[in-house]
Amino acid sequence: MSDLVRSDLVRRALWAAGAVVLLALPFYLDRFWLQAGLFAIAAAIGAIGLNLLTGATGQLSMGHAFFLAVGAYGYCALAGDGTKAGGHELVGLGLPSWLAAVLAVALTGAVGGLFSPIAGRLRGAYLGIATLALIFIGQHVLFNATSLTGGFNGRSVEPLSLFGLTFDDTETVVAAVPFQSAEKLWYVALAALLACALFARGVLRGRPGRAMNAIRDHTIAAGVMGVPVARYRAAVFVLSSMYAGLAGVLLALVFQRTVPDYFGMVLSLEYLAMIVIGGLGSVAGAVVGAAFVSLLPQLLTRYSDALPLVSAPGTGGVSPGEASRYLYGAAVVLVVLFLPGGLLRITALTRLTPSKKEQA
Fold first, then answer.
1. What is the pLDDT at residue 349?
2. Distance from C-alpha of 65 to C-alpha of 62, rounded to nearest angstrom
3. Which H or E run includes 98?
4. Is 20 exposed, middle or buried (0-12, 13-18, 19+ CB in 10 A)?
5. pLDDT in tens, 263-286
6. What angle do CA 253, 72, 113 make, to 5 degrees?
7. pTM value surpassing 0.85
8. Which of the residues 22, 41, 112, 127 could staple to 189 if both were Cys, CB 3.0 to 4.6 A apart?
9. Which residues of 146-156 are buried (b: 16+ CB within 10 A; e: fewer)?
10. For the segment 96-122, what is each residue's pLDDT rounded down to a tens digit?
């Protein structure tokens, strides 16, 4: 058996083992770890979309958090029943939650489409500054459109219902294990991540991906070769927005409440850190970077009592959130200086290292 066939079999076996482990986790992990995993999955979906735009096409976006907010609050408004909360009459159409989730993603794509003519004509820092304006506009709307967002206190999220199953905290016993919202959402989130990853991988490996890379590497040359540069930039921006919208819907379902403070500039910077740390232009790199950036603050919070220089939230000193930003900020610098391909580059370097037999 050749080394190539053997390595392929090992890779397939590892993928199969990983899939079995992921499917079995709700039966063994407590709620904290499942929620941390759900946050990482939602972040991975949003990071894949941003990597299509920034990593594969070379378009810098600072407004990713805005589109997450559109997806999250769009779902709340479409699925909510319009009840009062915090003295405000909230907008709610009362649609079936599965339909509200689909329409929220479509709404986010439509909002991205409204901005896409600008995205199609700008590049680099100019697009980054233009998308940064979306954050300020979004924060103003989220805090002041109280009938839609609930204002500072946010609004509760209608649980997802699919195939007659409601993904709330009502216990459903499966193999003697009580399944609540986190356990139920786990499989929906995994399915969404798999679908998003496979679609993005197909885009990157096909003709659109080659056109996107050509635009990233040399815009003028891509135009000379017949690539409609403005159209591709606009289309990828819409696609990236829809990925962010789906991530926002999933985050809302996990949080069970949406608050405006979460969808600020820091969140957009975190998504940029995800794709840089994991690997620009790679689906797997986006997933790895999202897991690193999203899990780090939760782990520091969980083990703050046992870690030096990190204090529990509200006790003074360096909070877990601040410590995590320092750490992944340092990780960005280290990746840019010493590992330009991101963490995913480590596995590529391992595969490319010649064996002793070949060296001889």
1. 53
2. 8
3. helix 97-121
4. exposed
5. 999 999 999 999 999 988 889 999
6. 140
7. yes
8. 41
9. bebbbbeebbb
10. 999 999 999 999 999 999 998 888 888
Q: Which amino acid makes up residue 100?
A: A
Give per-residue pLDDT as tens, 332-352. 888 878 877 787 777 655 454
Burial label for 16, CB within 10 Å (0-12, 13-18, 19+), is exposed
Average pLDDT for 319-324: 76
pLDDT at 153: 85
- Identify any residues that bridge with 89 across adjacent strands, giving them in sequence order: 84
- C-beta separation of 219 from 123 below 8 A: yes
In angstroms, the CA 185 to CA 36 distance is 12
Q: How far apart are CA 330 and CA 334, in angstroms?
A: 6
| Residue 354: both structure tokens together | 């010649």
Residue 320 burial (CB < 10 Å; 0-12/13-18/19+)? buried
224 sits in which H/E element: helix 219-224
> Is-contact 271 278, C-beta < 8 A?
no
Question: Strand pairing partners for 7?
Answer: none
Q: What would be the CATH architecture of the domain defined by 3-359?
A: Orthogonal Bundle (1.10)
Per the CB < 8 A criterion, the answer to whether 233 and 56 are in contact is no
Amino acid type, 26: P
Mean pLDDT on 219-246: 93
Count the residues in the chain.
360
H-run or E-run covering 28? none
Nearest to 114 by CA among 93, 92, 130: 130
pLDDT at position 360? 39
Buried b (16+ CB within 10 A) or exposed e, 273-311: bbbbbbbbbbbbbbbbbbbbbbbbbbebbeebeeeeebb
- The 3 state secondary structure assigned to 174-186 is ECCEEECHHHHHH
Distance of CA 71 to the CA centre of its chain: 12
Q: pLDDT for 56-89, tens place per residue?
A: 999 999 999 999 999 999 999 999 887 766 566 7
Whole-number mean pLDDT of the chain?
Answer: 85
**Is pLDDT of 320 > 80?**
no
Is residue 222 within 8 Å of 58, Cβ to Cβ?
Answer: no
